[in-house]
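Researcher: Please predict.
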Amino acid sequence: MRLNVIVYLDIVAYNEAIDFSTICNKFAETNFVLDGKKCFPHITLYFPNYPTNILPKIKDILSNVANNTNAFKLKFKDTTIAKIDGGIFANYEQNDEGIRLKDLVVNLLNPLRNGLIREKYKNDPSKDVVEFGYPINKYHFPHVTLTSFVDMNNAKEFINKRNNIIFSDIMVDTIAICEMGEHGTCTKIIEKFKLKN
């Protein structure tokens, strides 16, 4: 069962991500377009594989996390290209609140995967994969994947033509659980959980 626990973006950041993803797709072919219908903008917190029938427990844990976590802000940092797949990231500065939220979610949900490892990492003996189900530290920085270009050269050309790309800071006031698709996309929001104000 492939699920992703995410930060659900505030309305301003949500719309900015969708608009930018649409512009990318008009520039050149992309693997996905954020649209808020079949592909949702988000920041990943934790996305291992789980056994079936575990969803009710995950929902209970996330509800408890949200009820005991204050909303906080993530400041925009920069925009970068993924080195391997032409992905475009809007990156945000890590802060104590973000680290605390991610660590809490990971520590509470990790035991529920019952040792399952994501398929693509089955032959990876690294500590992260064994302990968390995938190389979690590689994905530890907060970012929104805006799209990924089919051709890496198009990603570089697109970014080079747009100097000083700026996104709004994000008010983190909602987490959610979603179904996952290709390229790390969030394809269906299962349930949202509001943090304390």
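Model: The domain at 3-194 is CATH 3.90.1140.10 (Cyclic Phosphodiesterase; Chain: A,).
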